[in-house]
Amino acid sequence: MDARVKPGHERLRKRRVFRLAAIAFAALAFVTLAFTAWVTSLGPLPFEQARQISTTIVDRNGKLLRAYAMGDGRWRLPVNARTGVDPSYLRLLLAYEDRRFYSHHGVDPRALVRAALQLAASGRIVSGGSTITMQVARLMEPRRERSLQAKLRQIVRAIQIERQLTKAQILDLYLALAPFGGNLEGVRAASIAYFGKEPKRLSLAESALLVALPQSPETRRLDRHPDVARIARDRVVNRMVEDGRVSVEDAVQAKAVVVPRLRQPMPILAPHSADQALATARDGPVIRLTLDSGLQKTLEGLARDRATALGPDISVAIVAVDNESGDVLSHVGSPDYFDERRAGQVDMTRAVRSPGSTLKPFIYGLAFEDGFVHPESLIDDRPVRFGSYAPENFDMTFQGTVAVRKALQLSLNVPAIALLDRVGSSRLSSRLKQAGANPVLPKDEAPGLAMGLGGVGITLRDLVQLYSGLARLGTTRPLREIATATDDPRESLRLMDQVAAWQVGNVLMGTPPPENAAHNRIAFKTGTSYGYRDAWSVGFDGRLTIGVWVGRPDGAPVPGLVGRIAAAPILFDAFARTGKLPTALPKPPKGALLASNAKLPLPLRRFRPAGELVGTGSEKAPRIQFPPNGARIDVDRGNGGQFSAMPVKVAGGVLPITMLVNGVSVGEIDDRRQRLVEPPGPGFARLTVIDAVGVADTVVIRFQ
Question: Residue 381 forms beta bridges with which residues?
């Protein structure tokens, strides 16, 4: 009987075991499928949303100029753990939050077991057991509830994160997303708001505070609960002492530091540049400008101090440019962006205003280029009328006969208008446009002589670009304020010939400086618009060009507002505050005529206005017969590869007749009224002849 029962019991037991195994397998399969379905339902990790940051404007070296809050008002600044954060803070963070960060794969089992035992022993959550990666997962998908399902979700997400990102990328995400109270997210935003500095160099007290805040950011907000924050900071310091990572002496000093109780404002350097960049550059959350933050801060302070001294309605604008590249190094649109009385948010560097006498150097430059005047030529400063226009000097006096050099240095009006009458107002206007400026004439008016004294509108930026062309010996570069990742393909724009540009700079170097300023340091010019509405001063050395505008944004007159008194001292102070001595201007280019008045060719010794260019006897005005204007000349090359000489033939004129090529004298025409001229090279050339009484003729030809 027993023998027969035993096999039956065995079969029954096996069936039960098989049934239980099948149930267990089905349950496991169901749980696995359910878990897989749940994991799948989570969808992809929201990396794109997590990587959204505040738009930041940085200078040429990557330093923060200004940041804009995100659409929902949060401050979340980009941060790089390797280069942007103090290493001691990182060591403190990992020691306190996740000691095995670099060895686990998103989850630290030992930390989870420790957290579970603490919960069982105390009946409350002592530590969450979360790794840095799990905290990143929680921050990427913020949820209020603290449940087993939420913790499981963090574990799954942490494993996914570890499979897709490197440890460095995970740490960067944590440093950017960690909450620090209010609308502050990320260690960089917190460090700037609480300590007023980047997190690159932090004290032990600061590091411990930044480690403690994300654990309970709202209950430890420094601007609301500073005492609670201090206790949390000290707890971090004490833990580090227990672990042997911080000495007792350092801990005592750290805990003695007072916790900040107020938030500091976010940096707002170069606000006008930042606004302009935000409106035009949309290729990424970080926009790099060509500005130098150190110089920008210095010149903003200078503008603010001088505007305060000048009066509550006065504004000051400054632009500093690197001559070689055309990069804007400083852009001060107003002395105080938030000063409504001064219309601080109006960028006065882009406002079209009357330039006063600041265009005179370009009149002289074209006159030098045309070859009918030299810096040492004599010119009359006396009452004269050009049709119905009778210019007068600023002080209502006349100097008589002066050197052209002195006439420009003293900014005499009559000589400038006399030269402009010879050069041509339309030619001056077109040349300024060719060099990248945009002079604005009154509606329905053509260029006239009045533009030489400010009868035209121009911006400070355009003026600075033009003056930088003098420093560059005749070519300008379009100003650039938004840096690009590739080399800038901007072409140089023609302003005037090299010799003429050097002569203008050489003359302006001798302009009498403002009171108590050093002589012969920078080449500069001042200007005052009609009615004392605008005061200007623009100057350059071999490295920088700086322009200053002073006035009221609404264009109202300011009695006594003169460029030499109001703007020139700011210009010289701006150069002084660059921290570098002025750089020498370029040496004289080849062909520059360096001579006293007595040694100049006879026609260049004295300038004669167009109305006085009358020949003597039966001679007619000189005229270049060959080559004709606009001709293309094919010139043979000799054995040395040089162009062979070309004959120039002249008719009429009073001997001696001086020949100039591109404004440089090459000698006199012989008795047969011809001369062999060495072509300067392939391209366009300007040939000019001036007879003994100053009558001239010019042709432009092309050698090929």
Answer: 400
Q: Which DSSP string do the residues of 425-479 spell out, in sequence order?
A: HHHHHHHHHHTT---BPPTT----GGGGGT-SBB-HHHHHHHHHHHHTTSEE---
- Residue 144: pLDDT band (50, 70, 90) is low
Q: How far apart are the first and last CA of the chain?
A: 128
What is the C-alpha to C-alpha distance for residues 266 and 69, in angstroms, rounded to an integer?
10
Q: What residues are labeled active site?
A: 97, 357
What does the pLDDT look like over 518-561, one tens digit per residue? Answer: 888 999 999 999 899 999 999 999 999 999 999 999 999 999 99
H/E segment holding residue 297? helix 293-310
pLDDT at 148: 65
Q: Do you know the residue count of the chain? A: 704
The DSSP output letter for 287 is E
Nearest to 161 by CA among 134, 139, 128: 134
Angle at CA of residue 169, ends 164 and 175, nearest 5°: 130
Rounded alpha-carbon distances, angstroms, from residue 67 to 53, 78, 328, 653: 10, 10, 20, 68
8-state DSSP, 539: E
Query: 648: phi > 0 → left, psi -120 to 50 → alpha, else beta; which?
Result: beta
CA 174 from centroid of its chain's CA atoms: 31
Dihedral sign (CA 474, 475, 479, 485)? negative
| Contact assessment for residue 523 and residue 470, using Cβ atoms and an 8 Å cutoff | yes
Backbone angles phi, psi at 691, to 5 degrees: -90, -175
184-185 and 75-76 as β-strands: parallel, antiparallel, unpaired?
parallel
pLDDT tens column, 449-492: 999 999 999 999 999 999 999 999 999 999 999 987 555 667 89
Q: What are phi and psi of 687, to 5 degrees?
A: -105, 130
In sequence order, what are the residues at sequence separation of 6 or more whose Cβ sits closer than 8 angstroms to the Cβ of residue 124?
none
pTM value is 0.81
